[in-house]
Amino acid sequence: MLRRLGTSRGTGPPRSLLDRVHAAVEGARTVTDHPVLTHVARVGLLAYGAMHLLIGYLAVRLAWRLRGADADQTGALQLVADGPGGRVLLWAIGLGMLALALWQAGEVLLWWRGLLDRAHRVRTAVVCAKCLAKALVYGVLGVTALLFAVGAGYEADERLQDLTDETLDLPGGSAVVFVAAAGVVAVGLYTLVRGFTGGFMRDIDLPAAPDHWEPLIEGLGRVGYVAKGIAFGLVGILLWRAAASADVSAATGLDGALTVIAGVAAGPWLLTAIAVGFAAFGVYALARARYPDRDPSS
User: Confidence class of residue 256 from pLDDT cuts 50, 70 and 90?
Assistant: First the structure.
């Protein structure tokens, strides 16, 4: 009885630091699970899907020498900016993508306890890293969209070349670029593996999706992930070549990689196939917006 009375009056033993951290994490988790944030995050997923559809469209134009905006994320945003109501749409895209980043990062708050368990620490660290990587991608796209919304857009390929040039001028800069290139290639390979294994379906709330739609969603996702894996792997290879030759012009982003594909034998047809893959990924992302699941354990 005395213990109960003392605790109720605030005179009982103080909670441990770990208990306080748990309480803070649970509070933050409640915020990231709020229905309003979930709905805004869906706007981000819709924007993410639409962006890939636009990249597919721009890639087809590039394949058949109908050059327009760059066939990458910044090119897609420029296309939106040039259209009717472009600035309003860019604000919606930017805020939606930032909400999506916060929503995705919130999954770490569910998994982080595993970091305290030796038996599951490595597995949990991998899951949390994957979740934060997704959030980082969404966040960068959100900030980029907002830059375009205020009229401060930029060319991704040019920025990558400038950054590569600045890095190569630093002591040990070549090693840094090599590591970055290896990382991009690894992302490309990982994306390919997800496409072949179908692990991306864990990002879809399958119980909520109609059974007859699941094969179509999975097929679109497989094609999309394979196309993206090939494109990003090529970006990493070109960045590696830039580090090896100290030629920053070889460092290029997605648009440059697609341009390389267009320049080889049968390039237009190959690039068209990649463009179809990006469009397929866009439709898959739209399906994910309809039935979202944050599960990063795939």
Answer: confident
